[in-house]
Amino acid sequence: MSDNRAQDLIEAVKNKGKSLEAEMSFFDHIDVLRKHLLRALLAIVIFTSLAFYYYDFLFNTIIMGPKSPDFWTYRMMCKLAARFPSLGADFCITEIKGKIINTEMAGQFTLQINSCVMAGIVFGIPYLLFELWLFIKPALHEKERKSARGFVFFASLLFFLGVLFGYFIVCALSVNFLTGFSVSPMIENTFTIDSYLSSIATLTIGTGIIFELPVIIYILSIFGVMTPKFMRSSRRYAIVIILIIAAIVTPTPDVITMTVVAFPLYLLFELSIYISAYIERKKNRELYGTSKAPN
């Protein structure tokens, strides 16, 4: 009996040692992740400081840009209307209605802080992705590292393409429509600066996130969660969802504006199908030596 008890005690000590080792390893990973996130936070702080330094340009030119009739998108729409009269006179935007006011004592102070922080986050996203990649990279095999090469570049490129599309197209069309929309001439459109800034930030950053769809599909396809067969079979539903998103994001009554927003989203969906099919063919070649799985 004493021998059995001694053996049980030894096993208990060994198991406890293994659990402590695993626990230490877990906290070591948390500590490494914390360091990566702190460096990413430092980059965001630097970009936020630069935004404070160039705040006049940030606010007057960028943030308030969609509120000005001289905005690039409106000037291009007027040129198109002059070249193609069939678009109609309403296609040329020469006035942005609505008045923006501040209703809080510290409103303009918080406006400056919030807008600079948002700009810092937007420009700090690529470095944040880079730090996350440095954290994940040691846990990947050599093949996985090669297949994920260029992740930071393509994810950042898609995000900024989405931000530009959201700012110049989605924001411009939405601001023009929402500031001029009225259910009664007795109601005057007067907006708070907080409402305006949150709308600009939501539409711009939200579109940037939507443009990350191919990257998300790429990751899901690697883990086998998403397949090209499922995406092709769901194409008609995806088209309906894309049209709904376009109608919500740009609540304009004309079909042309809705199509301008929906078409790039549909291209992203088709690109995601191609990426998922590429991942599936690659997996089949590694498993079966052919691009198609056996029946």
From TrEMBL:
<feature type="transmembrane region" description="Helical">
    <location>
        <begin position="109"/>
        <end position="130"/>
    </location>
</feature>
<feature type="transmembrane region" description="Helical">
    <location>
        <begin position="237"/>
        <end position="253"/>
    </location>
</feature>
<protein>
    <recommendedName>
        <fullName>Sec-independent protein translocase protein TatC</fullName>
    </recommendedName>
</protein>
<keyword id="KW-1003">Cell membrane</keyword>
<feature type="transmembrane region" description="Helical">
    <location>
        <begin position="259"/>
        <end position="279"/>
    </location>
</feature>
<feature type="transmembrane region" description="Helical">
    <location>
        <begin position="151"/>
        <end position="175"/>
    </location>
</feature>
<keyword id="KW-0653">Protein transport</keyword>
<keyword id="KW-0812">Transmembrane</keyword>
<keyword id="KW-1133">Transmembrane helix</keyword>
<comment type="function">
    <text>Part of the twin-arginine translocation (Tat) system that transports large folded proteins containing a characteristic twin-arginine motif in their signal peptide across membranes.</text>
</comment>
<feature type="transmembrane region" description="Helical">
    <location>
        <begin position="37"/>
        <end position="55"/>
    </location>
</feature>
<dbReference type="InterPro" id="IPR002033">
    <property type="entry name" value="TatC"/>
</dbReference>
<comment type="similarity">
    <text>Belongs to the TatC family.</text>
</comment>
<dbReference type="GO" id="GO:0043953">
    <property type="term" value="P:protein transport by the Tat complex"/>
</dbReference>
<dbReference type="Pfam" id="PF00902">
    <property type="entry name" value="TatC"/>
</dbReference>
<keyword id="KW-0811">Translocation</keyword>
<feature type="transmembrane region" description="Helical">
    <location>
        <begin position="195"/>
        <end position="225"/>
    </location>
</feature>
<comment type="subunit">
    <text>Forms a complex with TatA.</text>
</comment>
<keyword id="KW-0472">Membrane</keyword>
<keyword id="KW-0813">Transport</keyword>
<dbReference type="GO" id="GO:0065002">
    <property type="term" value="P:intracellular protein transmembrane transport"/>
</dbReference>
<dbReference type="GO" id="GO:0033281">
    <property type="term" value="C:TAT protein transport complex"/>
</dbReference>
<dbReference type="GO" id="GO:0009977">
    <property type="term" value="F:proton motive force dependent protein transmembrane transporter activity"/>
</dbReference>
